[in-house]
Amino acid sequence: MLEVVSLSKDFKKHKAVEGVNIFLEKGETVGLLGPNGAGKSTIISMISSLISPSEGDVRLHNDSILKHPQMLRKVLGVVPQEIALYNDLTARENLEFFGKIHRLRGKALKDKIADILDQIGLKERQNDVVKTFSGGMKRRLNIGVALLHDPEILIMDEPTVGIDPQSRNYILEQVKRLNREKNMTILYTSHYMEEVEFLCDRIYIMDKGHIIASGTKDEIKSILSAESTILIKLERSSDAFVDRLKEIAYLKTVTSQDKEVTVVVPKEVHPFNQIFQIADETGATIVTIDRKTATLEDVFLHLTGRALRD
Amino acid sequence: MKGILFAKLKLFLRKPWLFVIMTGVCVMFAFFTSQGEVNKIPIPYSVVGDSEEMDRIVDELKGAEAFQFQEMTEEQLKEYVSEGERQSGLILMPDDFRIMISSNTGTTSLLQQVVGKAYSDMKYKKAVEEAALSEGIPSAEVSGWFHEAETAPVFSIKEASFKGDDTFVYDPKLQSLFGFSLFFVIYTIAFNVSTILNEKNEGVWDRIILSPTRKWEMYAGNLVHSFILGYVQLALIFFVFRYITDVNFYGNFTTVLLLLVPYVFTIVSLSMLITGIVKKVQHFSAVIPIVAVSMAMIGGAFWPLEIVKSPILLGISKVVPITYGMEALKGATINGWGTEQLMLPVSVLILMGVLMMGIGINFMERRHV
Ligand SMILES: Nc1ncnc2c1ncn2[C@@H]1O[C@H](COP(=O)(O)OP(=O)(O)OP(=O)(O)O)[C@@H](O)[C@H]1O
Ligand SMILES: [Mg+2]
């Protein structure tokens, strides 16, 4: 129902987004995954027509929304990355204000607010001023405000940044419920693999303004299906050890960070003996060694040669 | 727009202290700077004998504009004058008075005139009363006549003078009241308009854009709120002076309140312009005091423009809204201008306001890529 077609955005000379294609079908939860500065928020701003694209188009039911931004805004709920609330008003007053500017009045507004306070679990704190809230509570209210006008499509820009695991799980469960019970179409942005793996049917992975992989979870992982990852922990970091590993032809990628060394190998290869031998020869001590099947994190690593988060 | 206005009001009521303090500080500034009776020359006096006539004369003298009379004993007075602490002293006797001087200055003859007039008035009234008494009319009734003649004269004489280039009417009370309140209100208004920048940074502004609310409603809600706060602050200050400290608005209090409308509008627009130009709240906070203080100095809020001689400064003052605000307010009161004369500063203010508002909002919108 929603389609992003070869969307690009240049800020002065810097290309923040380039040639991005994304589509969302009704009732899907789609993940947009990428490290800091990948261009996720920029894409969201263009979808909600807060900024205009340098190139490309956004279409709702095959109609370009660049000409009729109001059309999409009516059915779109956006949870911004930053907490966009009035800090000096209470949770309830915030909901009242944003409800009113969405033209809700009287009983309809009251019922809606009660419903949302329930959903985001802030009933008891509804009359407290927002600035007295914890980070997790603010995040929840930030989501609640986006739900006031019953959007069909919900775009969430890193809604779990900087909060405790408990609040995070609560939010993830809520998102799942919104999708299941209200058949809401959701675009979920994050740089946490686990969240996206937990929530999403399909995933787009982006880096430096480009989509570098897309598809269902399994499709994406199949990029690495012929390979597996070996994680080695050393007692002390050793450049000699890493350099020797890199000389071995069948070890596809060798990356190291401090005492951890990650090696990608074809599935059929069993290089443990050789690795121990090299450790012996270079005087490195292996603390643990582990072979795992691919995760999204590995896919990202494989595609970019970098970890998703530093 | 109502929703935005309502929320803003709620936010204001939750934190009204800055507004209250600003209003209080402004009242205090205007009050204390207008209190100095520096223009009155202190004259010590002492009364010889004790009679009803003497009381009348003293009362009469206390109403004098140029002098401030201070009672003391004759010895004290002589000491003051002989040591040169006071230019002259006054000894009042039942039928006559004496002026002691330490140096002969222009004040002596003025003092002589003022006191002489008080004596002759008193004698004249007394003569009429005595004549009336011999006809059997009580003196209370006679003083009633005098009072009536003073308050509702048969003939009224208006004094007028041709004003030369270097004479102007100066009313220190109104000058500092108008000046300080027009100056202080810039902060109140600017601070409120700048909340648009905060809302933009916090993302609240984007959220409202995504709602069915129109752009004009967003600006109108914010700007009307700033207008109301600015206007209420000025009106509050003026009410304090009108009804509590009894400042004379030359009978044109309502006109003064009306003239505040275009001024406040222009300052709202000016704040909008600055908000549109600066990029960050911190920049705004740095720019506002500079703009407000320099405008107040150039526009004659701290001292009357009439004493400024530099043609450059006077030239710059022509593009400063405070100049026209002061001109309108002083015009309606001190200078007794009619509607037509007042229309000039009012039109300039409105024109400036419309221009700055247009440019300001334009800048603001253009910045959003
Ligand atoms: N208004 C702007 N002007 C100039 N450059 C910008 C602007 N907004 C974003 N950028 C740049 O565009 C790139 C993408 O930014 P964006 O905020 O979309 O990243 P993101 O994926 O949301 O990152 P994060 O995970 O940190 O939120 C960054 O390099 C950023 O510096
Ligand atoms: Mg972002």
Low-confidence stretches of chain B: 159-166
- Name the beta content range of chain B: 5-15%
What share of residues of chain B is helical? 55-70%
- Summarize the biggest pleated sheet of chain A: 6 strands, mixed
What average pLDDT do the residues of chain B reach? 85
Taken in chain order, the helices and strands of chain B follow as HHEHEHEEHHHHHHHHHHH
The count of strands of chain A amounts to 14
Radius of gyration of chain A: 23 Å
Number of discrete domains of chain B: 2
Largest interface (CB within 8 Å) is between: A-B, 28 and 21 residues
Distance between the termini of chain B: 25 Å
| Name of the CATH architecture of the largest domain in chain A | 3-Layer(aba) Sandwich
* Molecular shape of chain B: elongated
Based on the model shown, name its key terms:
heterodimer; A: 310 residues; alpha/beta; Rossmann fold; Alpha-Beta Plaits; 2 domains; 6-stranded mixed beta sheet; 4-stranded antiparallel beta sheet; 29% strand; B: 369 residues; mainly alpha; D-Maltodextrin-Binding Protein, domain 2; 4-stranded mixed beta sheet; 15 helices; 6% strand; elongated; binds adenosine-5'-triphosphate; binds magnesium ion
